[in-house]
């Protein structure tokens, strides 16, 4: 075993800009990297996603673990890209989540075709996670190549979790709830019917909603439904005939998208909405505390697991039928922040824990 | 006296595009036209507005009448510019209000320095009436050259009124009423405070407002206050800390802008608004039924006067201290419409009535 090179790999990844929608260069780099250390048949390119199969030589290894990291970033200024200062390595995407990607790639580099851990590994390094649900690069990977790991024991997404294991996640739906009126010139409003005013009963009902707590063991998930943006389709001299409210509903693991949609519709139609249109439908991620691999990972992390209130691709794996968790070396508080960095000691610790979990102490 | 040439002049005006903000060419045409028939010292160019003084040779004439027409138009398609069909002359701005402008210019052409009517005339042909209050070309004219007609008996704006006399007009104010909350991620709304929900009491109060009728003689003006547009300054994954509502208040003649502003503030602050910012302040136009020149004009029009529910530059003259009315040959229903036209017979009739009023039967 050579010295771990995760940081060198991370430096390479940080040097390649990869804002969502512009991942061609980083995908080419990752593909070339994987092909250097794995046989050609074990590296698959799918759009700007790369799937790298690293089976174990260990005859006791029967189960598969998926490691799935996105390579894209959200645009944000960083004045110190590649710089190390006080134990922190700076760069856009360092915490979210190129540090996790780098550890995955270091496992590919260090062990290559000699991997002999407790599990077969499937690495997925994919694009467009930070964009809309429908454009996420993990979607086509699951659709076209999911058969390669459908029976996997667990998928680990190295989202920035400060080296904690985050289990499950809320689903999220955006819906446009529209109230209708009759258009008129604002000098003659009695000829019209103001659509904004139709909505007050609904807004009051939303305002009175309290978070609905769902617990799984010690884990708490809070269901919340809120109006976030509003639109009228008129000039300021016109009584609007349309008032459209964007509703964001975050719903707990265990609830289906269909059920969540019904709940949005019921509240809206009970208060006079004319229509409800769903614009984003992302499922909840299941909480699978009984999964033995997950129990082992939690034990190795040395900390109680956490619930995930925001949405992540863990939910996409859930929908696919695979247990998944977030577990990564980045800091959650650094995600999408100016001058993002990652703590180098956290990356080292993550690498150690991940290899221990995978049955290989390096 | 030669044959009236109003229609020829109108054709010339229709052939010169003059959408608001692009009145250089039409101003040059009008200036050249006026200089052809009036002494140099009686034609003043002020930006893209032209003031043409046409004093009367009649020794009995002591009073002044202002004729003030805007030359700009609101952009709208017209497939028949300059065409005459079934007694209608087509063109953008034909009704609103180049037909009125053409009659003014015909008086300048036909009588020139030989005008001997009952009044001295001041013609104002100005730009940017269809844009924001602050950019209206009549503003600088009143400010810089208003001394030329400050004592005038009446100002007539030939806005399209179907040859009826329209008296006074409502004032109009736009205000941004803002409700404040605390921003948060929409997955953790309990850390925030949704600004939209703060507004429901106010929206309900607005919804319950009824038009407040103000009558002057037989003339009815209806005060109305309505929310017309809304804005949040967030993404759809954010609980908004700001909800801004555009309020349009149309207030009756006799009420000051200051009083109208106070009424907006009182209702908003009584229902928890954080701030009220005024974005457009246009005064009401006074109703001056006792003005003898106005009485004479109404008699000549042969129809009862009408109130004006929408705002016009009559209000600007009011604020300047001059009685003013709308009286023009265009059709109100044609204003800002596709394939706008003017009825030629209406223009002829208008010309006859206006000259009778001015004490000159042509």
Automatic annotation (TrEMBL), chains A, B:
<keyword id="KW-0378">Hydrolase</keyword>
<protein>
    <recommendedName>
        <fullName>Succinyl-diaminopimelate desuccinylase</fullName>
        <ecNumber>3.5.1.18</ecNumber>
    </recommendedName>
</protein>
<keyword id="KW-0479">Metal-binding</keyword>
<dbReference type="InterPro" id="IPR010174">
    <property type="entry name" value="Succinyl-DAP_deSuclase_DapE"/>
</dbReference>
<dbReference type="Pfam" id="PF01546">
    <property type="entry name" value="Peptidase_M20"/>
</dbReference>
<dbReference type="InterPro" id="IPR002933">
    <property type="entry name" value="Peptidase_M20"/>
</dbReference>
<keyword id="KW-0170">Cobalt</keyword>
<dbReference type="InterPro" id="IPR011650">
    <property type="entry name" value="Peptidase_M20_dimer"/>
</dbReference>
<dbReference type="GO" id="GO:0006526">
    <property type="term" value="P:L-arginine biosynthetic process"/>
</dbReference>
<dbReference type="InterPro" id="IPR050072">
    <property type="entry name" value="Peptidase_M20A"/>
</dbReference>
<dbReference type="InterPro" id="IPR036264">
    <property type="entry name" value="Bact_exopeptidase_dim_dom"/>
</dbReference>
<dbReference type="GO" id="GO:0046872">
    <property type="term" value="F:metal ion binding"/>
</dbReference>
<dbReference type="Pfam" id="PF07687">
    <property type="entry name" value="M20_dimer"/>
</dbReference>
<feature type="domain" description="Peptidase M20 dimerisation">
    <location>
        <begin position="171"/>
        <end position="268"/>
    </location>
</feature>
<dbReference type="GO" id="GO:0008777">
    <property type="term" value="F:acetylornithine deacetylase activity"/>
</dbReference>
<dbReference type="GO" id="GO:0009014">
    <property type="term" value="F:succinyl-diaminopimelate desuccinylase activity"/>
</dbReference>
<dbReference type="GO" id="GO:0009089">
    <property type="term" value="P:lysine biosynthetic process via diaminopimelate"/>
</dbReference>
């Amino acid at each position: 075993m050579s010295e771990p090179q995760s940081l060198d790999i991370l430096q390479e990844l940080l040097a390649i800009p990869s804002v969502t929608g512009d991942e061609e260069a980083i995908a080419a780099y990752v593909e070339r990297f994987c092909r250097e250390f794995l046989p050609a048949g074990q590296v698959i390119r799918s759009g700007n996603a790369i799937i790298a199969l690293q089976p174990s030589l260990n005859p006791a290894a029967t189960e598969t673990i998926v490691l799935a990291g996105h390579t894209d970033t959200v645009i944000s200024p960083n004045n110190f890209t590649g710089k190390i200062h006080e134990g922190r390595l700076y760069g856009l995407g360092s915490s979210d989540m190129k540090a996790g990607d780098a550890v995955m790639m270091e496992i590919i580099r260090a062990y290559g075709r000699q991997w002999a851990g407790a599990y077969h590994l499937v690495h997925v390094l994919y694009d467009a996670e930070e964009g809309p649900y429908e454009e996420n690069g993990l979607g086509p990977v699951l659709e076209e190549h999911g058969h390669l790991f459908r029976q996997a024991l667990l998928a680990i997404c190295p989202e920035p979790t400060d080296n904690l294991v985050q289990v499950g996640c809320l689903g999220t739906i955006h819906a446009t709830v529209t109230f209708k009126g009759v258009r008129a010139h604002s000098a003659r409003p009695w000829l019209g019917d103001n659509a904004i005013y139709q909505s007050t009963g609904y807004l009051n009902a939303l305002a009175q909603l309290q978070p609905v707590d769902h617990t799984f063991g010690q884990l708490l998930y809070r269901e919340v439904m809120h109006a976030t943006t509003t639109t009228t389709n008129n000039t300021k001299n016109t009584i609007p005939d349309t008032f459209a409210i964007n509703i964001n509903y975050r719903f707990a693991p265990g609830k289906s998208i269909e059920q969540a949609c019904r709940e949005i519709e019921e509240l809206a139609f009970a208060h006079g909405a004319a229509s409800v249109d769903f614009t984003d439908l992302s499922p909840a991620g299941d909480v699978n505390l009984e999964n033995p691999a997950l129990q082992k990972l939690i034990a190795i992390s040395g900390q109680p697991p956490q619930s995930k209130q925001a949405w992540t691709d863990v939910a996409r794996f859930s929908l696919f039928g695979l247990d998944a968790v977030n577990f990564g070396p980045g800091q959650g508080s650094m995600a999408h922040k100016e001058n993002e960095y990652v703590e180098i000691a956290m990356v080292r610790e993550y690498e150690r824990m991940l290899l221990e979990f995978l049955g290989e102490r390096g």
